[in-house]
Amino acid sequence: MHVLSALALKPEELITSDKLAQSVNTNPVVIRRLLCELNEAGLIETQRGPHGGARLARAAEDITLAQIYRSAVGEIEPFGAHPQEPARKCPVGRNIKKTLQSVADRARQAVEREYESITLAEIVREVQSLPA
Fold first, then answer.
1. Among 30, 4, 2, 1, which Cα is nearest to 17's?
2. Contacts of 69 (CB under 8 A, 6+ apart)
3. Mean pLDDT of all residues in the chain?
4. pTM: predicted TM-score of the whole model, two decimal places
5. Which end of the chain has the lower number of beta carbons within 10 A, N or C?
6. Boundaries of every domain in the chain
7. How many CB atoms lie within 10 A of CB 75?
8. Which tens digits make up the pLDDT trace of 51-85?
9. Which of 4-8, 27-31, 68-72 has the lowest mean pLDDT?
């Protein structure tokens, strides 16, 4: 979100991974890896070379948090997933995975519905409206 918000502030400019890394306070290599993933997801476009950098692939108004969430997070394992198969003879063991999966699915759907209604542009407006 930080990188995409920074790109949304200057939609016409190519911003280097070095500048983005300074903003995030991390190593440019970390940002370059993230930019590759965002590029593959179709959220940004990149240009290599001495005058290269990254910019949003489309207007911030056209990018929802759901699109960002899906590209950045993907599938989430339900909390409490067992590393081994629980005991089938136990009434909890034989049903806990299915129950937790159902709860996790409903929670994920609720989050995605909410994220569908929020755009990157809204996040940027809120970031800009807060005191420095």
1. 30
2. 111, 112, 115
3. 90
4. 0.80
5. C
6. 1-62+119-132, 65-116
7. 6
8. 999 999 999 999 999 999 888 766 655 566 667 88
9. 68-72
Instruction: Give the C-alpha separation, 36 to 38, whole Å.
Output: 6
Q: What percent of the chain has pLDDT over 90?
A: 67
Look up residue 120 and give its two tokens. 């990157």
**Phi then psi dihedrals of residue 123, to 5 deg:** -65, -45
pLDDT at 81: 67
Q: At a CB cut-off of 8 Å and minimum separation 6, what does 123 contact?
A: 1, 5, 65
d(CA 56, CA 27): 21
24: amino acid identity, one letter = V
DSSP string, 29-84: HHHHHHHHHHHHTTSEEEE-STT-EEEESS-GGG-BHHHHHHHHT---PPTT--SS
Topology of 1-62+119-132 in CATH?
A: Arc Repressor Mutant, subunit A (1.10.10)
What average pLDDT does the segment 99-123 reach? 91
